[in-house]
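JOB MANIFEST
job_type = single_chain_structure
chain_count = 1
residues = 371
[input]
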Amino acid sequence: MLRLQAPLPERYTDASIDELHRWIGDARSTLGDSVFILGHHYQRDEVMRWADARGDSFRLSVLAQEHPEATSIVFCGVHFMAESADILTGDHQRVLLPDLNAGCSMADMADIGQVEDAWEELGRVTDLELLVPITYMNSSAALKAFVGEHGGAVCTSTNARAVLEWAFRAGDEGGAGGRQVLFFPDQHLGRNTGHAMGYTEADMAVWNPRLDLGGLTDVEAKDTTFLLWKGHCSVHQRFLPSHVEAFRAEHPDGIVIAHPECSHELCMVADQVGSTDFIIRAVEAAPPGATIAIATEIHLVQRLAAETPDKTIVSLDPLICPCSTMFRIDAAHLAWVLEELVAGRTVNQITVDPEVTVWAKVALDRMLAIT
């Protein structure tokens, strides 16, 4: 998806970090409660120090909704997160993304045109009444609206199992009554959750949107329980079982914690697997002196290491790789957005089409009712 962020004025690009923090602080003080700054766990520390709340994408959107006094929500995250905040917040609130180039490569691996084409193709070989579309929170508002309109729901990495169990549960038991699910855009979360539910690889097939019928035969498309979109997180896919072997060779009593966006092969050999919030809680629960390798984005890992000095916390991948799109948001962009608000100008506002908002909210509300 093409997004264009205009270059910042030289005042910001040439400023020192101390100057930027002074400007952010002054603007923040001037704006008061009219602005609410959200910081996703993967953001840089220079941004997170100014966050009024930090967390995962959906939790932050809910928090924005719970602060109606803030007319400006500055979301330090990526595009789909700002869209979710715009869907949930009131009409009097505006959501701003400090850098429009902050997207999500995984979310961009499934666009609405591809999903609509897949649905049409599947309709020729299987019963769409028994096919339930499920989209991960890391997707565009348009995809959330699609699943809302077609009887599906959104899921997070925390509640993916509950949502998938709902998809297969009979209608008279409060479920969707599905026989198959089309899960997008992250194949790994779908696969790992399916295995946790007792399904096997024989119950799963990867849908490649670049190939006719996803690269499947008619029989595969009709009979496979989990149709997993060929998408992934570029950061989480880097972690390998060999990294676990190397870590355990050096730290036999060490603990490996992985995010479910990692490959199934990696999750199979990890000690614990769970969402970002799960990872944070697992680190808190680990005994003092523990050595923990975490398979997730480096900014969160480094923050946990700094905030948990009684434990040794490292990235499972020795070749540290930040989320390049999250990394686009820095103190310079945050200072610019806030100072523009002080001047009475709104920049980088993220808005979702009203009709898309209606159906996306249906999908989100279904998720909340399920969980």
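[summary]
The two ends are 31 Å apart (CA to CA).
The first strand starts at residue 35 and ends at 40.
exit_status = 0
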